[in-house]
Amino acid sequence: MPYCRRCGTKLDEDAHFCHKCGTPVISYPVAVPVAPVKPLHKDSLVIAAIALVAILVSAVIIVAFLVAPVSPWNIGGSLEDDTPNVNTLNLNFETNIGRIDITPLKIDNNNVGIYVEANGSKGMLGGSGIPVYISFDNQTVDDVLTVNSLVSVENRFASQANVGVKIFVDPALNLNLNVTSQAGQVSLTADKDATFQDLNLQSSAGAVQANLQNVTVAGNITLRTQAGTIDFRMNQARVEGNNTITLQTNAGSVDMDITETKKLQGNLHVNAVSELGSINLGLTIDDGVGAKITSQTNLGNIHVTEQNFSGDQSPIQSDNYPTASNIEINNRTNLGSININAASQSSTGPSIRN
Q1: How many structural domains is the chain composed of?
Q2: Torsion 46-51-56-60 (CA) sign
Q3: Which of 9, 25, 167, 354 is a good FRET partner for 347, with 20 to 30 A between their CA atoms?
């Protein structure tokens, strides 16, 4: 029961004023016990995940900052050999990035000239020097010159690297060329009277091309790439001996254009292989050269346009096959189609078979 705060008189529970002295009654709220609020449950896995994401984001930002191109670089180099009385050139050249262009052409008195142009930018972790390594080793035994050369962008933090290599070889020499780019196109254009005893052009990630006009093929030829197209053109080559041409790609097409209307001093065997792409063949011969074409595809089609050939898609052969000099071509692909346009000297029109 409340009491008057002034005179101490007992008051009714619902009284608003003291009935004795008239002092207003003040009511004080009664405290109600409240349960303490529990803290949020801290899930250790959630906290760990958030921390990990934060660390990864920070790492990405730091790495991006360190490797971002901030310092440009460029380099050029000339690698040459002019050893006298050389008859044969063995060239082994490799680059881990960049395009390579090869031309049989005599420059000054050089047996071989390799000209390198490279540029790019590097980040803060790229080091202080130019991240390109160039080597050139030349040795001559009797009349045989062997050249081993390498161009490599050493530092993986050297971003936006561009490398171009031009190789000139003396077409008067017997040429054994082994040229590779790990990431870039390899291209050979030969329109001079050059002799190839061995030709090996390869790229891990890039197109490989060879254009042989009026040259002498005195050995095997290989064009190979892991991820790119193969483009092979041969026009009126002088074939000496029994030689093999291998054209192979894993992820790309094989394009061939072969014209031989003069008798060969031997036989030519061509293997064209594409794991994922198509094979396209253009072949022109005359009565002095016979030809047989065998084709195999797992999921594609075989389309043949022929003149003076017989057979149904595979194999087909010229009407004069076999003869004194022959070209035998084997085409094989897993997923692509095979397209053939084959003609031998004849006055009749072409026919088409699918």
Answers
A1: 2
A2: positive
A3: 354
